[in-house]
Each structure stands twice: as C-alpha cells, then as structure tokens.
Write the structure tokens for this entry.
Amino acid sequence: MTAPSPTVSARAAELRELLERYNYHYYILDEPLVPDAEYDRLLRELVELETRHPELLVPDSPTQRVGAAPAQAFTSVAHATPMLSLDNAFGDDEVTEFDRRIRTRLDTERTITYAAEPKLDGTAISLVYEQGLLVRAATRGDGTVGEDVTHNARTIRTIPLRMQGNGWPERLEVRGEVFMPKAGFEAMNVRAREAGEKTFVNPRNAAAGSLRQLDPAATAARPLDIFIYSMVDALGLGLTSQFESLQRLREWGFRVCPEGRQVAGPEGCLEFYQQMGEGRDDLPYDIDGVVYKVDELMLQRELGSVSRAPRWAIAHKFPAQEQLTTVEAVEWQVGRTGAVTPVARLDPVFVGGVTVSNATLHNIDELHRKDVRVGDTVIIRRAGDVIPEVVKVVKDRRPARTRRIKLPRKCPVCRSDVIRVEDEAVARCSGGLYCAAQRKEALRHFASRRAMDIEGLGTKLIDQLVDQELVDTPADLYRLTQGQLAELERMAEKSAANLIAAIEKSGETTLPRFLFALGIREVGEATAATLASHMGTLEAIASASIEQLQELPDVGPIVAAHVHAFFQQPHNQEVIAQLRDGGVQWPAIEVAQEAAEKPLAGLTIVITGTLDSMTRDEAKQRLQALGAKVTGSVSKKTSFLVCGADPGSKRQKAEAAEVKILDEKGLDQLLQGDIP
Ligand code: 9MJ
C-alpha cells in the first residue's frame, strides 16, 4: 500500500463533495442532478480509492451510508431494524464472485438456493401493522432514520390498511418498493407536457416525489403501486425461507411481485437475469435489474450484514436506461403533417442496451422548458421501445457562451414559413406537399403495412425516389418503370422487378385501406373504416358536406372539417384520379344499413386457413359490412366456419361442435348476401 498522493486525496475530496451534493438533490429535493449510472460510477471510484488508501476514509464519507437524513417537513421515524440497501453486481463475473464469497463464508461446497426477484425501480418503504392494522409507513431515509409518510401511504390502494387471513403476529413490519407503473408515468408526463408543466425525470423519481408530498391528496392523485419484498423477523415467525415468507405475505393480503422464483446456484441466477432482461419491456413497471437473495433465512442470519448492505443479497443491474452525453446539434424534423419537431443530435452513448445518437425534444415549448443548448451535457433516457428523450440538462456542466435555441422561421427542408397556431404546442411547415419532407413522410405512410402495404418500399428508397425527382405524389409510384428503378444506387435488376410487382399488387386494395393511406389528418384506421362502411363509395365521401360527415358515428367537427378540406383540394382530387388511372381499385361495399336490415345480421362467422381470393382481413371486413359478427374462435354459437387451405385445429373444433363449414364458394355466396 502506498501513501496517497496529493492528487489522489484531492480526487477523493472532490468525489465526496460531488456525491454529497447529488445525494441531497436526489433524496431531499427529489430532483436528481445526474443519472444513477453516473452516481454509481463516482461512488465506485471513491470506494476503490478508499480501499487502496484506507487513510482517506472519513466517517462521513458517502460510501458509509445509504440515502440521506430525513427532511424537516416530516416526522422522523427510527428503524429498529436498519433498512439496508443492496450492493450491485454489473456483470456475470460479479454474480459468480458473490456466490463464491457466500459459500466461502458458509464454508460449504453445496449449491445455494437463491430467491430471485425483479428489482423494482421505485422508492423503499417500511409498513408496520399492529393487530393487523396499518399503523405506520416510513421511507428509508438514511437506513436508520426515515420519514413518517403514513398519511400518504394510506392513499395507495394496493397497501392493505388491514391484513387478511390469519396467523399473523401482534406486530409485523414489512418492507417493499413503492413505484409508478409505466402507463401512469407516461400519462402523467403527457398531461404535464400539454399543460406546459414540468415533467418527471423517470418513474422512480416520480414515485419518490409522490410519496413525499406534504398534502396526502396530492399523493392520492398519483398512480402509485407497491410490491412487498420482505418481512422483518420472518425467522422469529417460524418461517424458513425468503420464498416462503413471500408466500405468507401474499396470504396476508400484501401485493407481492409475481415474477419471483427460487433458483439454484449462480447459473440459475444468470438464467433468471436473462429471462427478466428479455421480458423487461413487456412488464407494466420499470425494473432496473434483478435481486438474488440467499433463500434460507438461517443462512441469511449466519451471513449477516456489512454497514450498508446485507451480505446475503445482491442486485444484478441491467444496462442503465439513463446516461450522460453531450448535445452536438439541435435539428428540426418535419413530419407528414408538417409538424416541426426538435431533435437533439448526440455524442453517441450506450443506453438501455443500444447506442443512441438522436433524442427527441418533443416540441419547442418542451425544448425551452428544459433549456437544452448545443454543447450541453444532458441526461438521456431510453426505456424499452420508447423513443430516446432528453430528460434534463446538467446545468453546472454547461460550457461558456451557449445560446438559447429558437424555433426556425423557415422550414429547414423547403424554406416555407413555419407557422405556430396560438395555444398549440406544435409548429408546422406551411409548405404542404411542396415540402419534400412532408412528401416523403406522406409516401412512407401511403406504402406502410396497414395502408397500401407496398413490400420493399422503405425509407431509404423513398428518399432516393423523391430526391431524384422520380416520385412526387403517391400516384407517381404506379407509373414507375423497372428501368427507372434499376438505375438507382444499390438497386439490382431483380429487386427492381420485385418492387414493380409489389406496387402493382398493392393496387388491389380496400376502400378503408385506401382512405387511411391518403393520410388525411385525424383519419386513422378506425375512422377510415367508418367512412367506408357508412358512405360506401369514395365519391360519396369526397362530396359529403361537413354536416353529413358529422352524422357518422365517432366523427366530430374536427375530423369532418379535415376530411372535407382534403377532398376540396384540386391537387388531392387530381392525385386520386391518377391513382385510379394507375390501377388502384377496391371491391364495392354495401352501405351500412341499420344493423337488423343487413343481409348477414345475426350470423357469427369464424374464418380460418388461407383464402385464394382475398386475405382473411379483407373477408372479415366485407362480412362485417354485411352485418355479420366475425370472431376468432369456434363455439356452439358459431353459424359458419369459413375454411381456406391449411385450416389447423379450428376445423376439428367446428366438426366436433357440428358447426357448418364453408369453402370459398360458400364465402362468395355469403358476400353476395345469400345464406347457404
Ligand atoms: C426491489 N427494489 O425490488 C430488495 N428490492 O431486499 C427487492 N429490494 C431488498 N428486494 C433487501 N426485490 C434490501 C432491499
């Protein structure tokens, strides 16, 4: 061991100061300054320095405690049994090492059983029950002294105010994690953004902040939930394992995470890690890793704890969903409807398991609220399949002489004026289809799977076609020749032929798909289907007045005005005429009549197998237009099973249930309105 050099002790002091400040903002102000990953990095650096040079260790080092002392606003609560935090493992090696350490300490070679649990990313809470009634809820605080948040905890519906079942002790303390499910978090942020208010940085922070509201009514308005993960003194209650105590907690009416499992040895742990990592995006709540706990409570007791964490547990973290990086530029993207959206170009950073080099800034108001500038160090968050976003600027790392970003006055693509309607967060390019960006987006939408479904016509190809002025409107697609395509860069003769064939095939469509493909504002698939089934023909829709359109179900004044305006535009009429000349067509539809008058009203039909003449989806839409109900599974109530090639098990089910089976001829007959 060498004596620390002045630079090493200076670095240790610097780290202590930084970590203290980050701690204060995180725990007391509920406003983290840097991502957890950055905090962890700095903490690790300090731990390493202190390990190499123990004389640098001071009693108040941030390495010596968890959390922070309680805020003044709440009554302090002493935890009779300290609320520990968990040590982290960042790689498989560290998990194997953890297991080895445990077996060494226990002096055993046998395989250890672990209770493996997802690690919820929320805020820890202790709940005390007396005679089965909730009497106190407290935050972790610094692990020894927390804050009394009983009033707030009572507003969380999944915290039982009274325990269920029987056999519980006179006094029971349980611990768990309060969290905000992803959906609730997203919804709160959408609302905040619309109201021009500050958004939450992440669900964990939202949960911690919500639990520490001074007014319980404010907590009650937040979508919070809880999972209980431990019972204090389970051993004293005669339980033998962590897994068993979770079972018991469930019986007593507590909400316990359903994903937890018993696994064998480090291999079992790593397998669990991988499974949870793969399923992480599909869970309704955020997890930032998994936790492994020695399952046997006797062994836990034998292993004991070090200052801040138990020796018998470890958190195996997933790749962080938040990281720091710098903004290299702010650019403006133009969408299909002309919406001009700011996008941050970033120094590429590995976050949430992928490398991210762009992040959305949503809109100009949001950009100004966060005051993001070129050169800023920012926190980037990428959770699941959500678009990466800039959550926050680390203000004290801002370089000198940066400038506030302004909304461009001209469209960056076509130089038309950018217009912002009062009270709307979105600014738009006024160039319409004159703007190449809007044209490209319109083409992308037109070709997309749920619209015209032109296979092989992707983003890059559309860019090329528009940039080389081969395609201007969707109608131009149907005039392309194989020769023109073959001249494009990276386009082989064969792919050119395939694309021509795909374009031609897309021309055989349905009216709802075509309407959707046109990209009329506010007309999604559902509205397109309503327009088609009630008006029957494109001509009828195009010539309908705003009042007539508004009579349709779910069509309000805004949608009606957009539809009307679209078909009034000579340019749009022209493109539609050209598309039809180019071969785009669809089967006629019977206009929706009152349900009971429709020819197939009252029939329930199931379609299975591959049909020759149309897709199942198309058959379904046409049958529905004639009043039939089309369902996915055969039952006694099914009137007909329409059976194409390779039908699978539905056919057997239909035979067993004595449901009449129709081939495509029978389907044709139904579509004529005849019931076979
Ligand atoms: C979370 N956060 O989900 C623990 N945790 O156990 C689980 N935290 C824990 N266990 C002992 N599942 C200390 C913290």
